[in-house]
Design goal:
The chain is mainly alpha-helical and 302 residues long. Helix content is 61%, strand content 3%.
Amino acid sequence: MVKSSAQLMTTNVFSNELMNTLVEKSNGTIVQHMTRVYLNGIAFLSYYNNLVSKSSAIQKLRISFASKYRPFYHALLPHIEIDKLSLERVFFGGMRAITPELYFKWAVGFLIHDIGKASAVEYHEGESAYDRNTVIDHVKQGYKSLMAKTNYPVEASLITGYHHEYYGDSAGYGYFRAYLQQYKKQNPEAKQDYCITYELEPILDYKAIAYFPAKVLEIIDVYDSLTDPNRIYRKAMTPQDALAMMREEFVQKHRKIDAILFDIFADFINEKESVNLQTRSSAVPSPTADKQGNGRSKFSPA
């Protein structure tokens, strides 16, 4: 995490007029959100890498796939016979660890994913009524800005432009669905046989319906929005309440975020909260006898 952060800060990723505008005009809410998403994103990728490096973890997913996940993915890939759906159909090439090169490029995308909000800072940090066009515009502005800059990885541009796609759900938005619709018009017989790709080529060639880091960012972005104490228009949820809400609204009722990645993320948050709880507990001084042995806590009032 430290190495990736150091490398990120030494590159010229902040030479962007939108980023400068965002820093100058923001009251801090947007920038803090982007920073938290970045930190949670790279921490989650490390957690994910540790998980998939264990063959037992992948085997457990394979065992539970048919009963727990197959209906979810069959709705996304209805042209594939349900019995033929597997982890290798969900993850193009199968689940695997992320290389250091991709890790860094994706981290850049996580950090600057909301750079497009610079065009409407007052709306995104204010209490104005919901305006879908303004919300959608931040993805367009960010995507176009990054694609025009050679100092940003293409991967970061796609993450910025695709991180609200929600598997094509009507509540989502982004460039990919428009590109995919145009591709289908030109190639009516073409089908997407995979859900998620780690590499650029399958998403650019429309062989998959989602880009792995964008699906990760969708989850982290929603979670942070729900738990953010700085949001004016919404009371912050507890981690457990946020996870419960996301599971119900974004996985069970609607297929917006990815079911497998969400379960892994939930485990990541639960372990993180468990560690935080243990840390807080150990930081609370326990009553100890004073030097005279009278049993009074050294923190008790005299």
